[in-house]
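Can't paste images in this forum, so I'm doing it all in text. The chain is below; anyone willing to post the predicted structure tokens underneath?
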Amino acid sequence: MYEKIKHILQHLLPVGFIIKNELKFRFLYYQFYRGRRFHCNICCKQLRKFVRMKNGDKLCPCCGSVSRNRRLWAIIKSDFLADHPKILDFSPSRCLYRVMKRQASIDYTGADYSGYFLADKRLDITCIDEADGSYDVVICYHVLEHIADDRKAIRELYRILKKSGRALIQTPFRQVDMDEDPKTVEPLDRLRRFGHSDHVRMYSVEGLKDRLAQNGFEITIKEFTERNDNPYGFEEKEYVLLLKK
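Text version of the structure:
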């Protein structure tokens, strides 16, 4: 039902109008999901359930967060808000952009190149128009799988981080070896091979770790496994790569 309503609105209303009024639309929709069993840690609303997406993910009807957004925010709140860090976030989800912009304890900048996301700057991740050592923290969530020259992007992420700066990176992962082929360019072929029409590769956790390490990063792989109750609607098993320069 959620995705059907979203599809109808996108065809009836301009994108700019939808984004401007998104929270009003969502608040109305949220009324059907009020409850006490679940909790969104981004908008702090209590829910009787999350919206179940076609891909199985759990979406908050009030702020639009999906499971990976809520996990990322939990990590940031726990470990990345001290000492007023300067943070650069590539292609941020709208829910996280809004909540982090409200944090007085951080200097937060959202960056996008496509024009699809809420952002403060238009930056190309393979040629970032920022000085060396500009940021304490970089967030690069579900971006690298879209980038043809991901090694160049990784070098740029390393360059703009301050000494001992940190980064959080996640992509879709597969359990076996990485799969990439620059000759696979047709959207349907990419969908079949990489799981999405605009993805250019499928990473494995170890494959991405090795590629990041080759460019100078120290990497810690964080594996999260959830209990059955899972009140925050996190992914049941999830990997996040924590990097240090």
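Residues 67-244 form a domain with the Rossmann fold fold (CATH 3.40.50.150). Helices lie at 2-12, 15-20, 22-30, 67-79, 94-101, 150-160, 187-194, 205-213.
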